[in-house]
Design goal:
This protein is α+β, with helices and mostly antiparallel strands. The protein is built from 6 helices and 9 strands. The chain has a 5-stranded antiparallel beta sheet. Strands 2-3 form a two-stranded antiparallel sheet. 35% of the residues lie in helices and 20% in strands.
């Protein structure tokens, strides 16, 4: 049996239209679920870097939300001053959207992390301690690696300089090489490192090869084997986001409070 060219083209066109409708409909129907899954994943990463998830522990979405609400306080700050912004709801504030909006952001100064724009306001998290005390400061960080933009969080002690953890929730670095930023053993080596030197200039770096223990070599972290450029990217993004153009003013305020 043979078909005319007109019939074949028409049939193929009809199949394409039906498939397009089904794909578009599925995307719309699943959008809320996808966004919720992305939020839960990000909250899980915050819990992990805050030390609220045991190694190998798998949490349900409801448990993630419960622990997050119980232990963590989201805060919106003004990057320029480091002061809290009380009239912006941190639950609904979207830092990524603010960064893309020219009315809410500015062009970033030249930087090796290749951050293009900075929002006027930024969102971070504080781990609750006893009473009004804060146990941990959790800052979002992002910057260029070798193949991708790495996005994650770094956690600091209340002294605003000692690292307690680091994690990345989004990147496309090479598995087994730059992708080792996800390796729990490598992430554990960050604990106890010092972000700043004595003059509070960002000094922490990922070196090529091994670093010493944190108490002897506080400003250096072991390199990633075969992934020098990814490690360099991590160095750049940490230094940028803890520096004067990003969370530096906020960290300065926290240090002053810690020494009162």
């Amino acid at each position: 049996m043979s078909f005319s060219i007109r019939y074949t083209v028409g049939f193929a066109g009809a199949v394409c239209i039906v498939c397009s409708i089904l794909v578009a409909g599925s995307a719309v129907a699943l959008r809320d679920r996808q966004e919720n899954n992305a939020l839960v994943d990000k909250q899980t990463q915050v819990l992990e870097v805050a030390g609220l998830v045991e190694r190998g522990e798998r949490l349900s979405a409801s448990e993630v939300r419960r622990r997050f609400a119980r232990h963590l306080v989201p805060r919106v700050i003004e990057l320029e001053t480091g002061a809290y912004v009380e009239d912006v709801d941190p639950e609904t504030f979207d830092m990524a959207a603010a960064t893309r909006d020219p009315a809410q952001s500015t062009i970033a100064p030249p930087n090796e992390a290749q951050v293009q724009r900075l929002p006027r306001y930024a969102k971070l998290y504080e781990l609750k301690g006893k009473g009004s005390a804060i146990d941990t400061l959790i800052l979002p960080v992002r910057g260029k690696g070798l193949w991708s933009t790495l996005e994650g969080f770094i956690a600091l002690e209340p002294d605003a300089t000692t690292v307690t953890g680091i994690t990345f929730y989004r990147h496309a670095e090479t598995p087994g090489l730059g992708g080792e930023v996800d390796n729990p053993k490598w992430k554990a080596r960050w604990r106890g490192r010092q972000v700043f030197d004595q003059s509070f200039a960002p000094q922490l770096e990922v070196v090529k090869g091994p670093a010493g223990p944190a108490d002897e070599d506080p400003h250096r972290v072991d390199g990633l084997s075969g992934a020098t450029l990814t490690g360099r990217g991590v160095t750049h993004l940490i230094r940028f986001w803890t520096g004067p153009h990003a969370f530096g003013p906020y960290l300065s305020r926290r240090r002053q409070l810690a020494h009162r």
